[in-house]
């Protein structure tokens, strides 16, 4: 008899974006004339920049020629891209990495989900709350998260570190319990908030002192505008001994449909056996990748390389500026109307407190029926997201401005 991995059955089967789509659909069916505008979308909308598409065209032509054909590439990624990453994303920040500390991936979702294979099933995990659902769900699937409480809100073996307006969205370092592995994501999805170097240093020091591993998701680092906000955890001394970092070209350069990113596993990083022997994680991750991953496509890696050319850099920046203009006007308008809003300065997300203690889903429906605008209920990202909604800056200027005008009109009623 084949037995199923029953940990999968613990996952609540309601999926946030499916629930939203269902509710929007009900509205559309009952209000066929209404035009619904979405500020809830989590995907980018602007096309790839010319530097990238030109590089892809060239790579396609190579692949169609005898001399330029590429079959299986290195599981760790091509050196041309790994070198471009070293030279552009790290050296200018004073971070020295070895090329074999960089693993090219097919997007950060896969690796942020897969990385937990490196650690024993009985490690405790800590997450900031609200949070990108992949971190917890990937631990649930393997049995590490424990059981879901009766209100279906918290997992028994997960330590939740609330990020709310009350603490300025600065998570409190766990004091009463030991946490073996901590997931951090900055700039943050969903709250759009960032971490200062000083705060991040506290986490690194905690990790070094308590033998805690940090999984650091830097998927939105390209959106950072302020000079003193860290783009990488390795800007903090000692992080090489305690942190793995994930990058993605999805939000940086519109690669959500192209698929490419990278993961840094420093050679100084170790975890212990039960006997106390320290095992380096870099060779383990390499072994894992060689067994389960056959590399990101050559065409995608050439596309990513093009982002680091002078034209590529300029074009990618222009698109990021486009989205950040949306974020700016959203922040300004919502604030002027009188809402309490956060994020949006170094990230493409606005995190808004619902007025009058309204629940996330309740406000979602009010906004949908009152202004025909879609947002994302904050509680979908974790218990501390209750009473908030997320707006994204990934729409067009036109849609964003139109949606804001509608929200203003609706609130003035
Ligand atoms: C979008 C996103 C990613 C990147 O996903 P890809 O698989 O690279 O497309 C990673 N982490 C967070 C928090 C994200 O929002």
Keywords:
413 residues; alpha/beta; 13 helices
Counting DSSP E segments of at least 2 residues, the number of strands comes to 15
- pLDDT < 50 runs, ≥5 residues: none
**Strand order in space, largest sheet:** 2-8-7-6-5-3-4
Overall shape: it is globular
Helix content: 25-40%
Strand/helix succession: HHEHHEHEHEEHEEHEEEHHHEEHEEEH
Strand content: 5-15%
State the end-to-end distance.
Answer: 63 Å
List cofactors, ions and other ligands. pyridoxal-5'-phosphate
Count helical runs. Answer: 13
Structural class: alpha/beta
Radius of gyration: 22 Å
Q: What about the largest sheet?
A: 7 strands, mixed
User: How confident is the prediction overall: mean pLDDT?
Assistant: 96
Please give the structural blueprint:
Layout: H1 7-10, H2 16-30, E1 37-38, H3 50-63, H4 79-90, E2 102-105, H5 108-114, E3 125-129, H6 134-141, E4 158-162, E5 181-185, H7 197-210, E6 213-217, E7 243-248, H8 249-253, E8 261-264, E9 270-272, E10 278-280, H9 281-292, H10 298-306, H11 310-337, E11 340-343, E12 349-353, H12 360-371, E13 373-374, E14 376-377, E15 388-392, H13 397-411
Parallel strand pairs: 1-13, 3-4, 3-5, 5-6, 6-7
Antiparallel strand pairs: 2-8, 7-8, 9-10, 11-12, 12-15, 14-15
The structure holds pyridoxal-5'-phosphate (PLP).
Pyridoxal-5'-phosphate is lined by residues 107-109, 112, 132, 185, 189, 217, 219, 248, 250-251, 256, 261.
């Amino acid at each position: 008899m084949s037995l199923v991995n029953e940990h999968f059955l613990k996952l609540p089967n309601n999926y946030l974006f499916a629930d939203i789509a269902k509710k929007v659909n009900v509205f559309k069916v009952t209000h066929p004339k209404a035009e619904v505008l979405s500020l809830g979308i989590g995907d980018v909308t602007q096309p790839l920049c010319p530097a990238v598409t030109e590089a892809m065209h060239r790579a396609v032509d190579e692949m169609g020629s005898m001399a330029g054909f590429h079959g299986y590439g290195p599981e760790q990624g091509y050196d041309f891209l790994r070198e471009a990453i070293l030279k552009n994303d790290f050296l200018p920040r004073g971070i020295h990495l070895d090329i074999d500390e960089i693993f090219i991936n097919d997007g950060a979702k896969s690796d942020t989900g897969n990385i937990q294979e490196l650690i024993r099933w009985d490690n405790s995990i800590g997450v900031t709350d609200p949070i990108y659902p992949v971190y917890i769900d990937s631990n649930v699937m393997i049995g590490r998260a424990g059981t879901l409480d009766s209100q279906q809100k918290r997992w028994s073996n997960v330590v939740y570190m609330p990020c709310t307006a009350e603490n300025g969205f600065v998570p409190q370092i766990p004091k009463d319990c030991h946490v073996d592995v901590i997931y951090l994501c900055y700039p943050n999805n969903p709250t759009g908030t960032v971490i200062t170097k000083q705060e991040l240093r506290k986490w690194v020091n905690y990790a070094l002192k308590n033998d805690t591993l940090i999984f650091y998701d830097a998927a939105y680092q390209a959106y950072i505008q302020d000079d003193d906000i860290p783009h990488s955890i390795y800007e903090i001394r000692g992080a090489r001994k305690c942190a793995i970092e994930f990058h993605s070209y999805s939000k940086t350069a519109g690669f959500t449909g192209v698929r490419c990113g990278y993961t840094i596993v420093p050679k100084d990083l170790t975890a212990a056996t039960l006997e106390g022997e320290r095992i380096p994680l870099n060779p383990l991750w390499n072994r894992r990748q060689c067994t389960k991953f056959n590399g990101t496509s050559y065409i995608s890696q050439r596309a990513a390389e093009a982002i680091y050319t002078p034209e590529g850099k300029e074009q990618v920046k222009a698109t990021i500026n486009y989205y950040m203009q949306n974020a700016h006007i959203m922040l300004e308008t919502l604030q002027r109307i009188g809402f309490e809003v956060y994020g949006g300065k170094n990230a493409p997300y606005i995190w808004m407190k619902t007025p009058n203690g309204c629940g996330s889903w309740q406000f979602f429906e009010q906004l949908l029926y009152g202004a025909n605008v879609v947002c994302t209920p904050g509680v979908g990202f974790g218990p501390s997201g209750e009473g908030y909604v997320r707006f994204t800056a990934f729409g067009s200027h036109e849609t964003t401005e139109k949606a804001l005008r509608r929200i203003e009109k609706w609130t003035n009623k």
